[in-house]
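USER: Please consider what follows.
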Amino acid sequence: MCSLWFCVSGAQPNIIPKPTQMLVAKGEWTLGAKTKIGAPADAKWTKVAEMLAGQINKASGYAVKTVKGKGDITFTLSSDASLGEEGYRLLVTPKGVTIQSRTAKGAFYGVQSLLQLLPVEIFSPAVVNNVKWKVPYVTIKDVPRYAYRGLMLDVGRHFMPLDFVKKYIDLIALHKQNQFHWHLTEDQGWRIEIKKYPELTTIGSKRKETMKGHYSDQKYDGKPYSGFYTQAEIKEVLQYAEDRFVNVIPEIELPGHALAALAAYPQLGNNPDKIYEVGTKWGVYDDVYMPREETLKFLEDVLTEVIDLFPSKYIHIGGDECPKTQWKESRFAQDLIKKENLKDEHGLQSYVIKRVDKFITSKGRRMIGWDEILEGGLSPNATVMSWRGTEGGIAAAKERHDVIMTPNNFVYLDHYQADAKTQPVAIGGFTDLAESYSYDPTPKELSADEAKHILGVQGNVWTEYMKTPAYVEYMVWPRAIALAEVAWTPTDKKDFADFSKRMEIHKKRLDYLSVNYFGAPINDKFEYVWPEKK
């Protein structure tokens, strides 16, 4: 007897995120050394087929080839409008595997499911012997719930090497997420080369020391710290992400979180005679940009280079945690408030945001800001990222602005995920796997029409206490996997007990991918002690 989700004739495949519809039949198709992968004669589709072949060959030792047209595994262009841009159908029968989609992107997501239908050893970085490469007979139709499915990484506090950024993108893609939000500038470090302003990196990417232990300890390590990405390296990451259908959204913080930039160019601050230093302490600094025309020209120049580099429709400008102390004390700022008939310093922040929004819009892009950009009046074209709970997102959606939900109590992956006494130091808070999984990004307070403005959900990763890639992985996965299912799977198909069972199999895949996830065997440095991969 079969239901829409499950047929008792076969065991349930362990696919994450859970597909929209899946029927399982009795029997299996076997992938062999002479298997061919067929794809339409199109560069993007061919690339997807080649990536699948590459992974199969790496794990199996086979020499699976790609061909144009029909193969044993065949990608076909679908005319089914209900699949949208990212949906796919996956059919496994005695004749082979068919992945149908309207785009190469949909085909890529079909591949992620096909890989998870194969034995976990398919994720091995080297040949695994004595594995029967069988795929259960299934019929899957799968379409994501939300268009925006993101994961953010802050590299301002702790710089992350290029290889790890690529691995981060791989894991985003594996779980059918499609947005990588790259937080590139902070008080504690400017991490992107801007050719017109070289001192942003020669000065702004370096701090004299870093906090040691927790913020409350007020101790420092006394060691210089630095790191930034050249534009050539960023182009390399962007191509890598494009091949995996991941959009990269850059974030350039303004008008607050600007101390690293002010250390490089003090004339942009509220006290040009002050000697600014790149921040060594975590938290929020009073030092913010002074909204002179010179500063706005600087920001436009920076954003021009960023926009020229990044093809993303969205450009993130931060807009959060901007103290108003210096503006209250500044004669220039107070005169500007009067001149522009602004209500107060919050209005002045809105003035800056609106100017930047107008510039970004003129370049054919869309601006995203944290929910503080609601203060003083929301810029007309802005998309809001709601982090201080859900209230900002609700308010913005009611004003018919697009919203990405990132409420800290559900999606902040720098929170503790177990008893703090047993865990590496973290910023605080508590968000375990079950809480992340329980989140529903569409607030019940919204009407059906207003709810259309909820684009999706994103996990946020702030790295004050995450000094190494292994530390990031430990904090991010598997909670980010729960959020991937939140973003993809229909609400009525979600079940935490079922997700937890599938995760037990999925952890074996993460083992092969060398992911230092929470729950893996670790040493006293919270680094994975790798098991033998037999």
Notes: The CA atoms of residues 18 and 494 lie 8 Å apart. The longest strand covers residues 21-30. The radius of gyration is 24 Å. Confidence is low (pLDDT under 50) at residues 1-10.
